Amino acid sequence: MQLEKAKKPTRRAFAERMKEYGSIDGDFVVFEADIGYSTYSHLFGDAFPKRYFNMGIAEQNEAASAAGMASDGRTVVVCTYGVFLSMRALEMIRSFICYPNLNVKFLASHGGLTAAIDGVTHQATEDIAILTTLPNMKVFCPADSHAARSVFDLAMGTPGPVYTRLMRDPLFEVYSGSETFKCGGSHCLREGKNITIVSYGDILFQALEAAESLAARGVEAEVLDMYSLKPFDADGVLASARKTGAVLVAENHQRRNGLGYEIAAWLLKNCPVPFDNLGLDDTFAESGDYPRVIQKYGISCSTIVSRALQLLERKETL
């Protein structure tokens, strides 16, 4: 699959659609935590200054204030880095937003190691484990700018709290803009019969590259974009697992309690097949060049290929 180089990161595409949506829906408001030129929420603020609230470097207050406004029936978009939303503001999100099931949508930038050069303090590598655990929370992760725009609309149309994980830098475009995205959905970007590779966000591109490399070895890998992490597309995973007989999950997150753990537990109950998952192995990462960082921590194309081949060896011995 030939991928087009992206001209904008998903965080900007999401924010641009948010600005456009401001003319469609005159009721929702946006809260920011003093980094509007990084999340690009300033685009909305410049267009609708009376509906834009910069709460300063105070994410707990930002989330609590958003809950207060949403409790009156208004939809609120909360913007900042995922690492601060998922940890610094966690109690407010849990008790004041998820518990009453309020319409608060989160623009969570710098997901995983896409914040590579910003170092560990800005790398949200535990956010999916934290946010998917919260009752009523939905979690999405678009891979490119087209998906990010569609997922903004999806988030706004999904009742209750929604956390959307976005990237720091532009990578590639895989969608045309005509695709449909839904809560609990996925897209099969490459069909195969030997092994299923499940991924999302930035690592989806590593999975697609790995599938090309495996094809040169005679291995047909099926690649699923699991853009909806909670709920995930259980039917899609089941159909693919039954077809290929082996599943590998690769994600930019801690291995523990990420999508890989969720799918592993589900497969164990419903369709036991040889399984493996890639992610950070109980470690923090470090600051550095993005391609080198994901290579070091075992979530790049080369590791996906080697672990896929090992998984196929296990499959053949069964």
Characterization of this structure:
- The chain folds into two domains: 165 residues, Thiamin diphosphate (ThDP)-binding fold, Pyr/PP domains (Rossmann fold); 131 residues, Rossmann fold, CATH 3.40.50.
- The protein contains 13 helices and 14 strands.
- The chain has a seven-stranded mixed sheet, with helices on both faces. Strands 9-11-10-13-14 form a five-stranded mixed sheet, sandwiched between helices.
- Strand 10, helix 9 and strand 11 form a beta-alpha-beta unit.
- It is globular.
Question: Layout of helices and strands, plus pairs?
Answer:
Layout: E1 4-5, H1 10-24, E2 29-32, H2 36-39, H3 42-47, E3 52-54, H4 59-70, E4 76-81, H5 82-88, H6 90-98, E5 104-109, H7 127-133, E6 138-140, H8 145-157, E7 162-165, E8 172-173, E9 187-190, E10 195-199, H9 203-215, E11 221-225, E12 228-230, H10 234-244, E13 247-254, H11 259-270, E14 275-280, H12 290-296, H13 301-317
Helix pairs in contact: 1-8, 4-6, 5-7, 9-13
CATH class of the largest domain: Alpha Beta
The CATH homologous superfamily of the largest domain corresponds to Thiamin diphosphate (ThDP)-binding fold, Pyr/PP domains
How would you sum up the major sheet? 7 strands, mixed
Q: Specify the helix fraction band.
A: 40-55%
- The CATH architecture of the largest domain would be 3-Layer(aba) Sandwich
Q: Characteristics of this structure?
A:
five-stranded mixed β-sheet; 318 residues
In a nutshell, what does this entry contain?
The chain has 318 residues and is an alpha/beta fold. The chain is built from 13 helices and 14 strands. It folds into 2 domains: 9-173, Rossmann fold, CATH 3.40.50; 187-317, Rossmann fold, CATH 3.40.50.
